[in-house]
Amino acid sequence: MNTFKEISFMQYVLAIHGVEVATSILTLPSSLAKTAGTDGWISIILGWMLATIAGLCVISFMSKHPGETFQEILIRYTGKTLGKVFMILWIFHATFSAISILFITLFLLQEWILPHMPRYVIAALFMCSAFPLFRGGVNVIARYAVFVFFFTLFLPALLLIPLKDSQWLYILPILKDGWLPILHGVKETAVGFLGFEMAVLFYPYLKNKQSAVKGMLIANTLTLIIYLQITISCFVYFSPDEITQFLWPTLTLVKPIKFPFLERLEIIFLSFYIFVFSTAIIPYIFFVIDSLRQLFNKPKWKIPYLVLPFIVILSAVFTLSYEELEILKKWWGFVDYIVGYTFPVLFFLYVTVYTYWRGGRSREKTG
């Protein structure tokens, strides 16, 4: 592999973290409050555990053949036909994830910042801005993730300002409704941690592959810290009944913050948050483009770039309401549970058994 395309450990960590931190930051406190009450922060920790286990499974089967891409590994262990079928499934997953996050982003921008601008115009501007990143490849995308992380690091810190009026008694007593609501809340947090599966894209480019496991742990833990900080901030500022009434509690938490020279801070907050959205959308779209090239064995094929105008056309044809976006999110979560969590674990078990069986057959022949 060309060393120019290699990515550093920090780029690897923050690229995975950037995919994980998408729209969940804005809605997770409310959805958890409805499902698990103020014990929802425990669901976040359990979701982190599930994501870490699935993420380590991804690293495990990718590390079997460090110089190969994800598609090559699928074909190696499942055959050419079945391997391509699985690859198509992952392309669908990445496409659906990118479109879901993008549609939610467009809805937020139109509702809060640009109410009179058509969504397809916003989508076209986003795709034009992101095009150089797609052309630059994984190396440029990973560098962009590092830039966005440090450029938007002040956003979670802003949410600490309203805590001077917080009531920590709102989250007490702990486990007041038992473990069952908390376990139900894990399905919400599991979606929030999705993005770790994009290690299949970034791992082959990681310079020091021995640090891949540590990188996955750090990336997931960064996401855990941000989710906990934002969720607990909302839980102690809003009452347990009040928080369930907000669609976007994180943005509502920003509204009381006032400066003599600035009003409507939530608009500024969301404007910067567009960069955070982009670190999730761009890797998914690039994964689709790169996978289509590999699938049809056309390294210099330009047709996959039709994915970009195709997404703009979709945003023009489908102008979804909030209720329709909620339905889309449910389907997105269902697909991601299968591809993001179930597939890596099952494929890891399959590769482990397959490797052990082949090793046993080889020893029998040599013996």
Overview of the molecule:
By secondary structure, the protein is mainly alpha-helical. The protein has a single domain (9-365), classed as Amino acid/polyamine transporter I. Helices cover 72% and strands 0% of the residues. The protein contains 15 helices and no strands. It has helices at residues 9-20, 24-36, 40-62, 70-78, 80-112, 119-136, 138-151, 154-158, 180-192, 199-202, 212-237, 249-254, 265-295, 307-317, 322-366. Helix 3 packs antiparallel against helix 11 (212-237) and helix 4 runs antiparallel to helix 5 (80-112). The longest helix is centred in the C-terminal third of the chain and has 45 residues, at 322-366. It is globular and about 60 Å long. The two termini are 37 Å apart. The model has no long low-confidence stretch (mean pLDDT 86).
Count of DSSP H/I helices? 15
Shape: globular
Mean pLDDT: 86
Number of domain modules: 1
Biggest sheet: strands, sense, closure?
none
Order of helices and strands: HHHHHHHHHHHHHHH
Q: Indicate the structural class.
A: mainly alpha
Per CATH, the class reads Mainly Alpha
- The N- and C-terminal alpha carbons lie at a distance of 37 Å
Helix proportion of residues, in percent? over 70%
Question: Could you name the ranges where pLDDT drops below 50 across 5 or more consecutive residues?
Answer: none
The CATH topology name reads: Amino acid/polyamine transporter I
* SS strand fraction: under 5%
| CATH level-4 homologous superfamily | Amino acid/polyamine transporter I
At CATH's second level, what is the architecture? Up-down Bundle
Strand count? 0
Q: How many whole angstroms does the radius of gyration measure? A: 21 Å
Membrane topology: Multi-pass membrane protein
Pfam families: Spore_permease (PF03845)
InterPro entries: Spore_GerAB (IPR004761)
Organism: Aneurinibacillus soli
